Amino acid sequence: MTVTLADVAARARVSPATVSRVLNGNYPVAAATRERVLRAVEELDYVLNGTASSLAAATSDLVGVLVHDIADPFFGIMASAAQHAIGEGGSGRAGGEKLAVVCNTGGSPERELTYLTLLQRQRAAAVILMGGGLEDPVHLDATAAKLARMAEAGTRVVLCGRPPVPGDAHTAALVFDNRTGGRLLAEHLLGLGHRRIGYAAGPADRTTTRHRLDGHRQALAAAGVPEGPTTHGPYDRVSGHAAVAELFARDPDLTAIVAANDTVALGVCAALRERGLTIPGDVSVAGFDDLPFSVDAVPALTTVHLPLHGSGTRAGRLAMGTEEPPADGTVPVPCTLVVRDSTAPPRA
Questions:
Q1: What is the mean pLDDT of the chain?
Q2: What InterPro entries does the database record attribute to this sequence (predicted)?
Q3: ∠233-168-49 over CA atoms, to 5°?
Q4: One domain for residues 170 and 67
Q5: 52 lies in a domain?
Q6: pLDDT value at position 5?
Q7: pTM
């Protein structure tokens, strides 16, 4: 049911005129009253009506692209490609283009919901959420409700690199096959003869982390090889560097380490060199994503290739409506194993 101005006024115990003054910002209102009105707006998820032209068009010329960290090449590549596709497919009222705004959440679920609320109030034409989702039931429910309400108001919703929100039929989702990637990496190392494999994983509460670990564990179980030590941390170089000490403390005889992504793998490699170990002579190292620098690392990094640029482009097209999603809304994104110089058979 659509929330009205009168509903907000009743919740805040003020007149509709006072609510209008607070939201339009064109008349002084006592601070306590203003706070009460804004709290009611947030609790009821009320969307302020825009101008008559905005109402006629249903949505504005704004497209929001939500990323965890724009400085991370994983997100930068996809966001850049999406923005280009949005520009090509734009049909907005002003000059024929949409305004793509990149929102950096820092991985915070609170910031993600805040940005979605701001985009909702602006009647965004589309939103694209990039990167793995948080596996928290409360956040999942809140996100699903928010996205459903935005979709019902005419906003196109696209997920890029995360699975669909359970129970949400309003979104298009480009789903990376992270499980297969994790399995391919483990099978590659097992095929080389490794039996003591450590894992420097990402944050434990993220879908990407769990799915990549699932594939890794499936391969080990199929081969009858016990799982090695696993650490969890952010998807950054510092995390990979710190993981090495913990992994070797738990198993000093490791011959291989799988990293959560290529950036984490760089940190792992640096820490191994500081210990006087060679790669892959003493320890093989593998990453994930196939970021541009992985081929130039020394040694070049074995990794899993994800089509990040192509996925960002498709996300942008889905957001603009220039590409239609399949009937079930899910677009599987395959991955491929890229074998380079950072992995080799263990020393006898």
A1: 89
A2: HTH_LacI, LacI/GalR-like_sensor, Lambda_DNA-bd_dom_sf, Peripla_BP_I
A3: 105
A4: yes
A5: no
A6: 79
A7: 0.82
d(CA 231, CA 243) in angstroms, rounded, equals 6
The count of residues in the chain is 348
Kindly state the tokens that stand for 173: 């989702």
Q: What is the DSSP string of 123-158?
A: T-SEEEEESPPB--HHHHHHHHHHHHHHHHTT-EEE
3-state DSSP assignment of residue 30: coil
Q: How far apart are CA 137 and CA 52, in angstroms?
A: 38
Q: How far apart are CA 99 and CA 104, in angstroms?
A: 16
Non-local CB neighbours of 5 within 8 Å, separated by 6+ positions: 16, 19, 20, 46
CATH number for the domain harbouring residue 76: 3.40.50.2300
pLDDT at position 170: 66
**Which amino acid belongs to residue 324?**
E
Among 42, 36, 100, 99, CA closest to 66: 100
Query: What domain count does the chain have?
Result: 3
pLDDT beneath 50: ranges in the chain:
50-58, 91-95
Q: At what angle do helices 16-24 and 31-44 cross, to 10 degrees?
A: 90
pLDDT at 49: 53
